[in-house]
UniProtKB/TrEMBL annotation:
CDD domains: Radical_SAM
Organism whose genome encodes this protein: Slackia heliotrinireducens (strain ATCC 29202 / DSM 20476 / NCTC 11029 / RHS 1) (Peptococcus heliotrinreducens)
GO molecular function, one term: metal ion binding
InterPro entries in UniProt: Aldolase_TIM (IPR013785), BchE-like (IPR051198), Elp3/MiaA/NifB-like_rSAM (IPR006638), rSAM (IPR007197), rSAM_sf (IPR058240)
Protein known as: Fe-S oxidoreductase
CC cofactor: [4Fe-4S] cluster
Length: 293
């Protein structure tokens, strides 16, 4: 199997088999991220992909799911993705679900009809690292798109019938813009109606521009209490029914799960309890000790 280090995969999807079709991230400029620093974006050759699929056929001949790597394979144009999905079905004929991560901008070069065809070939779920629905915040951390782009491109996925996830990065706007980040993100996410909303708490990793800006007094990171208060505000304003999960955010044990709207009051209650009674010093120490995702 061909894999480029470091290997990141979505732990909420089936974690095997994996198939690398790209390496790194096309953007690789987000101020908070270290995932693919030093990794040049590259496209795996169809010969390598076929060799990996032949190997997978000997190991898991009846595989029904597969997760495509790496950072944003969805960046490949339709003309490159279609033959890859066809090869997956050729080598693994029981295939039902193809999962992949992507950026909002990866959808700009694809029509709804093309996305429908990719779905027919197995592309069923896409995880989008959206992070915010607030334009100021998106510009501040160099995401490379705005809220109107999120709405337009996610609308294509909805029209094509492809399920998608959206992530909210708790704390990434800093203290000065926390409220707008939370409220505007909840508004945009609610409008897009993803099948899943995931939240993660910002950690300022070594080597990131955002840490350097914080050290220079140019970024005002939130305390653990303020992180939870921002997450609470996001949850209070989120109105789409979805699966809701938290990752990299220390908090109550019952926050994650399906049927968000039915559980919303309980989630809010748990977050308020964490704000008032949680061991915030321990949470802060855990976050400080993280060095990478």
């Amino acid at each position: 199997m061909h894999f480029t280090e470091p290997v990141y995969r979505n732990p909420y999807w089936p974690t095997w088999p994996l198939l690398e079709i790209t390496a790194g991230c096309t953007h690789n400029k987000c101020k908070f991220c270290t995932m693919y620093k030093g990794v040049r974006f590259d496209v795996r050759s169809i010969e390598d992909i076929e060799a990996d699929l032949a190997e997978l056929r000997t190991m898991v001949p009846h595989a029904r799911t597969i997760q495509l790597l790496s950072g944003n394979p969805l960046a490949l144009p339709y003309s490159r993705l279609k033959p890859i999905l066809e090869k997956i079905n050729e080598y693994l004929p029981d295939m039902e679900y193809v999962y992949t991560a992507g950026r909002v901008t990866d959808l700009r070069n694809k029509t709804v009809e093309q996305l429908r065809e990719l779905k027919e070939l197995g592309l069923r779920e896409v995880s989008l690292g959206v992070e915010s629905g607030d334009d100021w915040t998106l510009d501040r951390v160099n995401k490379g798109y705005h809220a109107e782009d999120i709405i337009e491109q996610c609308g294509k996925l909805t029209e094509a019938g492809i399920d998608f996830w959206m992530s909210f990065l708790n704390g990434v706007a800093g203290r000065s813009h926390s409220r707008d980040h939370a409220i505007h993100s909840a508004e945009i996410f609610s409008q897009c109606k993803p099948m899943l909303v995931g939240t993660g708490g910002l950690t300022l990793f070594p080597g990131t521009p955002l840490l350097e800006e914080a050290q220079a007094g140019e970024f005002d990171p939130l305390s653990e209490r303020e992180m939870l208060e921002e997450l609470l505000l996001f949850v209070e304003n989120l109105t789409c029914d979805c699966k809701f999960i938290t990752h990299h955010t220390i908090g109550g044990d019952n926050l994650s799960g399906p049927n968000f709207l039915a559980r919303k009051d309980d989630i809010i209650s748990s977050l308020r309890d964490e704000i008032d009674h949680g061991d915030l010093e321990t949470y802060a120490a855990i976050r400080r000790n993280k060095v990478t995702l």
